[in-house]
Design goal:
two-stranded antiparallel ribbon; 30% helix; alpha+beta; 2 helices
Length: 110
Amino acid sequence: IFVRRTRNCRKICTRSTISSQASLTLGAATNEAVANILQHGDPQTPCAIIVSITADEVAITFRNGRRDSSAPSTERFGVWGMTQRLQEAGGQLAVEATPEHWVIQLTLPH
């Protein structure tokens, strides 16, 4: 659907048949994940947003560099809200932090 450059982020999606509800849920979670990248990510490092659509589910991975090595919180409102929204729709959210990167992976059946 789009390719858009924001800072060092490049978002890529392809058309597929997913339900309106799944689309709304994914859109809201994607907006929050990108907001987190822009607010907390290192603007000097690239980020990646990888979309995978199969017959059963949509998976989106967000990966960006970290500004510092302090332990990130997965209990902040944005991550908590994404988790709740995805779980209510039958999906999942996984968060991983390495010393260099922050990774959010969301999956949602469609």
